[in-house]
Task: structure prediction
Amino acid sequence: MKDSKLGSGAFTGNKDNGNPYSGDLDKGILYDIYEANYPVIATDGNFPRLVSAYRYNAEKLIQNLNPVGKGRVLDVGSGTGIATLELLAQNKSQRVTGLELSSGMLLVAKYKFHKAEGTDLLSYVTDKKLLDYWEEFRAESLQYKDRVELLQGDVQECLEINSESMDGAIANQVMHWTELSKSFGKIAQVLRPGAEIVWNSASHFYNDSRFPVEKYGFRYNGFLAKVLEDVCLRGGFDLPDYTSLSKPKYDFEKVRETTREQGFTTTQIGTSLQQVDFQVFIQNHVPVLVKQLISPFLDSEESDAKIKEAISRAILDPEALSDTKHKYEIVPTFRSVKHE
Ligand SMILES: C[S@@+](CC[C@H](N)C(=O)[O-])C[C@H]1O[C@@H](n2cnc3c(N)ncnc32)[C@H](O)[C@@H]1O
Result:
């Protein structure tokens, strides 16, 4: 199996359990700052290579896609265009339609694909790494720019896409932000008969029978538990239910049944264990996850400071560092084929 190290994003802090990427431009910029800053190690050849995290996920996902024709492929939840570019680089279709809910994410994608609407963006951004990353992306995307259409919309709602016009679809790290019955219902309308969507998900959504989330998932890490205990003890409030950090609602049977009802046959075609880099874990995940759990007890600024102090103590505590098992984001990959 290919191997990678992944920081699964600074975006786990999803307070209202809705889409954490919503509306504003900052979200698109933050997303790409993350992509520009935390490369993962791809060890799929004789030599490792460093590749940005979502791009690597997209690369592996899209390798599995078999469109029924060479016309058009739909990129569901196309975000800032990372998987969109990968679809074109792998030459999966002549044209790609990106469908994205968030106007901020979409605007960034437009800039990265040389669309006129995106150019204002440069007046907001000064981050050197981000600008370099965008420059590289734009150099690669230039050859494909006229083959891409970027639409704003919710995949769960009425799609302004012609019925049965898509030869295939992908969704890279998207479907867990939607209600599967609704999104698959709409995707069924736009795919040609016999066409497929390949999609992946995450361990806060799906419990993989081979790698149960409680046994391997990074949200159950002992270091995180120590930080949480420390903050609660010193703050004088009860320890919140630690297991509530990740209680996936889906297993394979539920995915298969929900998608079957919308006219698909789904198989799980793989799982990848993406090791969360410990530095990234401490810097990005621990503060967000602990904060989520203690938010009923402390206001935001107070909790930031307390969490920081607790992390400094845990770093020096051999017991807090002893958990070497819970360090993976468990990413299942599925193929859902629309019935003929
Ligand atoms: C983790 S990002 C992945 C972005 C992109 N697929 C990539 O590979 O980088 C998830 C994206 O799904 C989008 N999304 C979430 N719910 C959606 C919905 N109901 N309809 C369309 N897009 C949605 C979010 O706005 C966000 O851009």
About this structure: Confidence is low (pLDDT under 50) at residues 1-18. The chain has eleven helices and ten strands. The two ends are 32 Å apart (CA to CA). Residues 19, 21, 54, 58, 77-79, 82-83, 99-102, 105, 154-156, 172-174, 177-178 surround S-adenosylmethionine (CB under 6 Å).
